[in-house]
Design a protein that fits this description.
The chain is built from 16 helices and eleven strands. The chain is an alpha/beta fold. The chain has two domains: 338 residues, Amidase signature (AS) domain (Amidase signature (AS) enzymes); 78 residues, no CATH class. The structure holds glutamine. The site of glutamine has 13 residues, from loops. The site of glutamine (GLN) has 13 residues, from loops.
Length: 487
Amino acid sequence: MKLYWLPAYEVKQKILSQELKAEEVTQEIVERIRMVEDKVNAFITVCEDEALKKAKEVDKKIVKGEKVGVLAGIPIAVKDNISTKNIRTTCGSKILENYIPPFNATVIEKILAEDAVIIGKTNMDEFAMGTTTETSYFGPTKNPWDLTRVPGGSSGGSAAALAAGEAFLALGSDTGGSIRCPACFCGVVGLKPTYGLVSRYGLIAYANTFEQIGPMARTTFDCALLLTVIAGWDWRDSTSVETPQKSYVEVLDGELKGLKVGIPREMVGEGVEEKVVKAVYDYVFRLEEFGVKWEEFSLPILNYALPAYYLIAMSEASSNLARFDGVRYGYRFPSDGNLDWNDVFSKSRRDGFGAEVKRRIILGTYALSAGYYGKFFLKSLKTITLIKKDFEEAFKRFDVLIGPTMPILPFKLKEKIDNPLALYLCDIDTVPANLTGVPAISFPCGFSNGLPIGVQVMAPPFREDLTLKIAYKSEKILGFDRFKPNL
Ligand code: GLN
């Protein structure tokens, strides 16, 4: 097998035993990126020089016998809404096209402290608003399994980079499914952690109530390894939660016998493609062979999840994006002094933001306006409370909830981009985990005509270990990590 397809963990072992130099590994990935990037467009920025420099430093440490971190020499791709010091961070937007953060996000400090090698910043829907990575100012990313199809979004670049062998690990962010959706469409593993488990300091905000940074990888083990590195309380993020430091790698092994699984009917009902439903049930039948008990049940409150999500997400986006005004940083409409502040402000925003971002700012501003606030925003907040309550009840009956990640297979580029409502509907199965804050993992459970199908496992808050354990066992049973796209 080519080096670039190996699991991150194996590569690290080879680097530690000096069978491979970290520099060679990074070089190999740089070459792979050169080979396939024209077709895939997973990256907005490739950090070749910085990456090689970091890899050489790791090699030096190893030769000298110094202690190295758990991600020693591993090239990792980072979504372009996570701030990286001295490396441009665009959020997939023209308005931040030349923005270079003066600081690192906490997760970046953590991966660098463990000697990871940042190989580049990945493509994404503009400001993480989207489901296909087509709203990026830097052009769409293509699905490595079929270049005529979307990779999912908004962390489409991170997922595609993994699926195309352009990185061993990746970081994404998930506000309403943006880690799990592309993981599903690209046939990789992606985990949205419990709200508060991973620091969001340095993540450029879209909708604070929902979002989390999370790990993505080609194997569950690698995903657990990366989560172990990035999890933990951070004084700079007031929403982060103090949790005991733990290894998610050590809890992977174990039997699933006696596990109680609930399948919410609303997640496999109307609008879900038959092939997807079949793949999910085939998977659950396999689990049954290992002593897992499952049951369908109804969670009618889920019918309100999507409207509540979009109302709150758009409202928060309208407020969060007010800071992009062409004054402090970002794109500024050129003026030789003949325009007043108001003109520069609105023209900068007119030209700097894309259509989908503007749509959400307008709708969000409307939802928050006097007279409508109670009708829309407040009502949505109340809906969330009800959904949380029903989830708590469900977790008294079941250890985990299982359903499809995406209701449909990866579709063609441009197929839905002019139909925002159709795109929003694709998030039907992913937003509940964001509304309730629970951890949710997506991993492949089957293929249809060469396209991956993903299943989603949700667990009670801070039970990432359970979702990872199930994914790990499933990967062994199904062997999905063996398949690679033909690029
Ligand atoms: N597709 C969803 C949206 O457009 C999710 C985005 C996300 O998780 N960042 O809002």
